[in-house]
Structure formats: C-alpha cells, structure tokens
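Appendix C. Worked example: Peptidase
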Amino acid sequence: MVYDPERAGGLPVADGPSGVRPDAPQPAGKVIGSDGGDADRLALLAVDDIQEFWEGHYLPEWPGRFTPVSELVSYDSTDPLAPDLCGQPSYGDPNAHYCPTSDSMSWDRGALIPVGRKFYSDVAIVAVLAHEYGHEIQHRARLVDDDVTRTIVKEQEADCFSGVYIRWVAEGHSRRFTISTTDGLDRVLAGALYIRDAPGDVSDPADGHGSAFDRISAFQKGFEGGPRVCADIDEQEIAQRGRGLPALPAGDGGETPIDDDSLSTLLELLGEIFHPAHPPTLTVGGDGSCQNAKASPPASYCPATNTININLPGLQKVAEVKDEQHDQHILQGDDTAFSMVTSRYALAVEREQGAALDTEQAALRTACLTGVAQKAMARPITLASGKSLVLSAGDLDEAVSGLLSNHLVASDTDGRSVPAGFTRIDAFRSGLIGDADKCYQVFP
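Step 2, the predicted output written as structure tokens:
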C-alpha cells in the first residue's frame, strides 16, 4: 500500500474538505493571555481535539494515565511586551511550545498561526499543535529524559505523534476537524517546511529539530504505524531510518544559478549517474511541443525526439531562493529546479528500458529515479568537462517542496502526477535510500 498511487499511507486517496467541521462543538477551556480572536479559537479547538484523541489512545503499557496539560497560554510574538514563557522571551519567537516544568502549552497568535493558515491550512496549524502535545505525551509516558535525551529524538518522536493524531482525523474520527488525503494532507506535510531546521541553524544535527525531509519522514512513520512505533524512536532508530540517505554538508552551501552552463553540467552529470546508451539532448527555448507527449513547462520531455525542453525564464523563477518566514513564499531554490530537469532525464532513461511513460506508475518511478540521482549528486563526481555540481545542505528540502507544490518531479511524460503528496514523497525517498533496480521493481 505504501506505493499504491490510489492510497496515501494506506488510506484511500480522496478529495474533500479540510478544516473545521461545520458542526464542530465550540472550543472549551481557559487560555491565559488570549485576545479572543480567530487564531486562539482555532488553537483551543485543536487542543480540545488532540486531548480527546489521547484520552482514548494513551497506551496501557505507559506509566500512569493521560491527563490534559495544566495550562494553555496565548502570546503575540510581534509584541515587544510579550511575556517570558518557560524562562525564555516570547517576543520574536513565532512558535508553539510545551513547557515540562509548568506542564503548560503556548502558541503564537501573532505570526505563527496567521502565516501557517495563509500558506498551509487550518489543519496544518492543528498538526503543529499536535506536535507540541506530543511533547506532553512523551513526558507523561516517561519516554524521554530532558537531561539525557537528544533534541532530535524528542522532536522526531513528537512529529511522529502528530502523524498518529492526523491519521485519526483523516479516518474521520474527529468531531472537530476533517482532512482530505490529497490537498489537505499535502498542506500538513508542507507545514514541515516552515518549522524545519534551515541550513546553518544548528552545528550538530542531534541538537536540532531536523530538516523538512527528516520531519516529514517522522510524521509519516506515525501516520502509518501508530503510537507504539513513535515510542520506539531513539538515536539508533533515527540512524537506521536515515541509512542510505545522502549525507549533505552542514551549513549553507549557497545556490547555483540556473543557466545554460549549469543545465549542461547537470545533463553531463546525469549521464555519469545513469549511463544511458542514448542520452537525451537539451534544448532551451521553444514551447516544448511533441508529437507523442504534452508539454510540461518549465521542463518537458519528448520521447519521439528524446529531447528535454527547458523554458529558462520559468525554470529560473522556480529556482529563486524564497521561504515562508522571510519571503512570505513557500520554500524553493536551485534544487527545486534541478530536480525538475532530473525527472525529465529520468523519463529518457525509462524510455531506453522500454518502460511505459504515461501511467501513474511511471510518475512514481520517475520520482524514485530522481531520488536515485539526487543521492549520487550528494558527492563530487569527476566529469570530462572538469565542471562539477554537488547538492548542498537544504537542497533535499527544496526538492520535497516541489513534490508538494508543483508535482512535476513525480509526473509522467504529459506532466500528470498522482493525487497524494504523501505517496510522491514515499516514491522519492525510495530512490534516495535505494537504487534504480528498486525503482523498476516497485513501480513496474
């Protein structure tokens, strides 16, 4: 079911509304510092729902029993007079927190919730709060020790618990929220882009929260496996889950301009990775018209001529460095563009193998082979031209962002993708940790 184009994490793919149910009960509870606005009403409704979930799903083998957090706090991170919370200033901190010393949960109504609702959805905000409530669960169940447990373990376990709760919502059990397994779940996954560790944020990954790719992986683990698999997360499990993933350098590796030179270098590099007998040719400009495939700008592949056509202005626009917090725009960068072109090269490789190119399986196989290429691009490869092109920190997050926003990396020759971003990311990850043979095996 993981690789079924008509499923997302085992659930049937279905469109539909996502957000607060029309007949949802009114939020109940006291919030310290609340302004009574929509942001606080949404957050309190989310907390009510998350608590109802854990009342029924707190595992019997865990110590004690589930009890709700003792205190809920709302603050405005844009207000210089915002209070200190859990011993830390909240001004300039657009976030949500669980404080174990006071058994309290807080959220920022000034920036976090408005931005999250704008770029993602109400349910994406609910998922963020479910993550914070996951910290309450891990402390209540004594799954972590703040003096010993590394930050990355605590954070990925909380991401996993968020996935467990969102699965319950997606199955239709929530009285307050609903979510589709297509666009609705995609927007929740995209929320990991906003709360990821950006390149250079931490010097030691074990002291951070994880990249967007890390966090989505942990969320999907909980969505597919339930609370017991989350409770098993430790440093060894994280290392095992990451086995085979490319090791990217720490810090900000910078961005590569998208131009004729970098694109020709990319195609030369892909030739060294896949070794096709008949490499595709690259054309820049034109409309990408083809007698046996539809154009999929800004990067199109024509099987009839074995040609990749690039709309350079369009591809450059996709590669402009942007993110949510600084640019009020979903994450993108050079690898958003390079992964698109790589996917069109992958179709040429598939054509040479005699594989079908216009099916849902072809779309996922293409994402998988793009992952294979990205894994190889994480290390320097000697090219005849003497040039090089190597992925840097943050590039995989840019590629994942594209999988959720434009879908081209996981599409067939006509640019058609599969409906669930959850499945597109699973296919891409399969290539990152596997090889080309696996891509043809699981996506025949």
